[in-house]
Specification:
Largest sheet: 9 strands, antiparallel
Strand content: 35-45%
Helix content: 10-25%
Radius of gyration: 15 Å
Low-confidence stretches: none
Oligomer: single chain
Distance between the termini: 22 Å
Number of strands: 9
Number of helices: 2
Length: 145
């Protein structure tokens, strides 16, 4: 995997959010969240926005996360992701079943570089057309140090 340091833009998202007690619960929740947002866009007569974004932040022993698009969607809650001066990123190609291992590798790289992860980490779904084996997701971990 290739790792790149870069700044991340602030984003205003139309989003759905949830809180889970176990990371294993995310997959069953996040897919329907995106489907509902796409349905809301279609119902408004709009083409679905691209790319999709997800964010994750630990809250004690629970994990809060959101799924959204950087576009106003009528009737949906909005939320902001702050701009980040420095993040370590990598691109993962493959099914969502393997994304946990990609995050683990990114986390190891953060530690090897002596950096401290903080704030909501992000996933940017750059390509979700076709079979999941071809999906392209950028993983973004804000860091300092």
């Amino acid at each position: 995997m290739e790792f790149v340091e870069k700044a991340l833009p602030g984003l205003e998202l139309s989003q759905r959010t949830a809180v889970v007690a176990d990371n294993g619960e995310i997959g069953a929740a996040i897919g329907p969240m995106f489907q509902e947002l796409v349905a809301a866009q279609l119902a408004a007569g709009e083409k679905p926005a691209h790319p999709g974004y997800a964010w994750y932040v630990a809250r004690g022993d629970r994990l809060e996360f959101g799924a959204g698009f950087a576009r106003a969607i009528r009737g949906e809650q909005s939320g902001q992701l702050a701009a980040v001066e420095r993040a370590l990123t990598t691109t993962y190609v493959g099914p969502m079943s393997g994304i946990g291992a990609a995050w683990a590798e990114l986390g190891s790289q953060v530690a090897r570089r002596g950096l401290e992860p903080y704030g909501p980490c992000r996933e940017v779904y750059l390509n979700t057309d076709g079979p999941q084996e071809l999906w392209v997701t950028e993983l973004q971990q804000p860091v300092r140090g």
